[in-house]
Design a protein that fits this description.
homodimer, 452 residues, alpha/beta, FAD/NAD(P)-binding domain, 5-stranded parallel beta sheet, 25 strands, 28% strand
């Protein structure tokens, strides 16, 4: 049996490795358009932060290793341009000379990932970024370009367009290199999906690290003036040595759409719990595919690394005849911004309302360590529950310690469809260096109960 | 209505405060034999670590504050010696002159806590510890004595008898003051309830901090020779300026037993889910009372702070007419020992076998941060599940970061009676500074699934 995979990153290579491991006789072909497979995309900002570290460290395994040690036919430089579901073939062109190729498959996995959304700004041209200093960060090659440009041009100042996770992580990375950072975006709020008080804590952290924030500024154009870039808004203009666009990502679902596969939220590829698309021989996994939300039961699109890896495995199991159904995701996401840990899982108030819940909300402030324990800082928790059913719906946290891993307890609770009352009874960890007797999450749940 | 509480620490004062808050007309009397109510007992080692910090910082609220601001009749120096369940009275003697007292109650809460277990060693005499330097640590007054003795005698070396949580926390505290520490106990293993590989990591951490461990040594006698103490074992003898006994605690259930109340595991006071003892007008909560284990459903006795506070609240609610039943505990416990975080929840293999499960076990080693992220250390996880039902049964972890709070996710899973497979599907947090894409707990669950 021939298992063809389009895309050689998290979902694709997870599927390839696991399928080959559980069924060594399987003919596994991976078609990757770039030169890189299996690298830590999320690690890029942290690598870029340190001029002395080689960005190639982020490569987990070379294509050659997959070929030689695992017997997976990894073909880099192979850009799949179309799928013929009736004929069960994929075709495209390969680098460097554009030679056409065609592969037939018994089972196909689309793991094409996502791409950076490009802002619609006059003068924005990524194709000449090596020369102009206009950048985006999604692929390892993007990372290479940024790191090289920072060094070669001795960049002193960067403008980041967008204030999402990647923008904020890159902001910290650049500040670590003592590079000045301006962040600008059209939207009026730093983190629109985050509770105001928590978002304010992030803003203060950014400002105390000398990051200049310009929310609420439409961006009209970028001009190259000598070696500098000038970014023009209706009311202000900013200048820098480099501009990094980080306004979001979109799923690479064009070839799926062209092949007539059903699309879903945000143009992601619709899959069932077995990761099967609307064609029974075609799977999709990773940032290009949708998922069911564990809280709402509805389709959602939250492209994150764990889901990509897990979905890759599940596809491999299903291809190899062991039926696996994925329960869904709760949208757990954490990030670090300077000394702050930021976490969320489940629904926001707005998402809860839009999904037909009747949400109650609480925002609390507690200490990160026990009474009288030195070194404590503040942890802020927002928690929401459904007044109708008592169910826990979501949580957000911000603090200097003890935030990132605590959110996983909430994720488990959401997975179990726990009520706020049940969650408030859980036997969470306590010792003075790690928190108050009543864990911040328990305090939030206890307070939330009073409002339900 | 008259609500009398014996004992003014975590469970007692939680109950008193909450009862008075929800029913201001209630007559709440707290009888506490010592001079202290409401202090952070768990914080004592961390306070003792720093000679410059006043141990009185650990007092959360003075008795006077409870009296004046909350209208709770807190009587310190009142030692309850007997309960008459038929007459609904408690009686005893009060300090300093031994005046007899008697109080009648409508509802009574026994929150007498626990006491240090005293080793049966010739020459061991805590009553003259101020002079001899033989100490135990349970009450704030114990803490005061230790701190004063360390300072006044300029203690350079301490022998700790026992290797449990308190012993280990005190060991770190003393080493922080550059005091030499020998730890000795009759049992052959450092942490007998912990997986060998994890226990070894704790041992290495202790040894690399120059702590000398002497497990497997029976202790025959302690001699005072001049200002020094000599501890004699059959094969070795150790000497020091102070001896700290930390071999465990036992529930203070004598007056309950004398009153004919039913006892439970380890002589703790048996209570139902509403915290009612075998007498319908008498509650028990905190370290003196038992609890139901969330995994086994059986009675257990695991005296820890969160349960004491939670049970105190539940008693208050029940006394005030709002029926509350506590689900139970999973025995979540974390502690810090030098730079190591140690955590457990649920059952050990032995406990699982004794409770009729058919446990499978896995021990894994992962990185604390993502691939290529600087500063990573090792996290070790032991996880066990039941082969018959697929249920998750317990987990232990050791590592330099990211351990303490991660265990709470497991505690929530145990509370939900999750299977290992369900747990393996949860949407846990990931970002490169905080862990690998597959959280150590997910990796452990994935590995464990293969053995089930």
């Amino acid at each position: 049996m021939k298992f063809v995979i389009i895309g050689g990153d998290a979902a694709g290579m997870s599927a390839a490795s696991r399928a080959k491991r559980s069924n060594p006789g399987l003919d596994v072909v991976v078609l990757e358009k770039s030169t890189d497979v299996s690298y830590s995309a999320c690690g890029m900002p942290y690598n870029i932060a340190d001029p002395d570290r080689d960005i190639e460290e982020l490569v987990v395994r070379q294509a050659e290793v997959f070929r030689k040690k695992q017997g997976i036919n990894v073909m880099t430089g192979h850009n799949v341009e179309s799928i013929d579901p009736a004929a069960q073939t994929v075709s495209g062109t390969s680098a460097p000379d554009g030679t056409e190729f065609e592969f037939s498959y018994d089972k196909l996995l689309i793991a094409t990932g996502g791409s950076s959304v490009m802002p619609d700004i006059s003068g924005f041209d990524l194709s000449v970024s090596n020369q102009t200093g206009i950048m985006a960060l999604k692929t390892l090659d993007d990372g290479r370009k940024i790191k090289a440009y920072l060094k070669e041009k001795n960049v002193k100042k960067v403008i980041i367009i967008g204030m999402g996770y990647i923008g904020l992580e890159m902001c910290e990375a650049l500040r670590e290199r003592s590079i000045e950072v301006d962040m600008v975006k059209p939207g009026p709020v730093l983190l629109p999906n985050m509770e105001q008080e928590l978002s304010d804590a992030v803003r203060e952290e950014l400002e105390s690290n000398d990051v200049r924030l310009y929310p609420g500024h439409q961006i009209l154009s970028i001009e190259k003036i000598g070696e500098r870039l000038k970014l023009n808004c209706p009311d202000i203009s900013l200048d820098a040595d480099m501009v990094l666009s980080a306004i979001g990502i979109r799923p690479n679902s064009e070839i799926a759409a062209k092949a007539g596969l059903k699309l879903s939220v945000g143009n992601s590829i619709a899959v069932d719990r077995k990761l099967v698309t609307s064609d029974e021989n075609i799977y999709a996994a990773g940032d290009c595919a949708d998922a069911f939300h564990i809280v709402t039961g509805e389709r959602t699109w939250i492209p994150l690394a764990l889901r990509a890896n897990r979905a890759g495995w599940a596809v491999a199991d299903n291809v190899c005849g062991k039926t696996v159904e994925l329960a869904g995701i709760s949208g757990t996401a954490i990030f670090k911004v300077f000394d702050l840990e930021v976490a969320r899982t489940g629904l926001t108030i707005e998402e809860a309302e839009n999904s037909g819940f009747d949400p109650a909300k609480v925002v609390i402030k507690t200490r990160s360590r026990a009474h009288a324990h030195p070194g404590a800082s503040i942890i802020r928790v927002q928690m929401i529950g459904d007044k109708k059913t008592g169910r826990l719906l979501g949580c957000q946290m911000v603090g200097r310690e003890g935030v990132a891993h605590r959110i996983s307890a909430l994720a488990v609770a959401l997975h179990s469809q726990m009520t706020v009352e049940e969650f408030s009874q859980t036997d969470m960890a306590y010792a003075p260096p790690f928190g108050p007797v009543w864990d911040p999450l328990l305090t939030a749940a206890n307070q939330l109960l009073k409002k339900m």
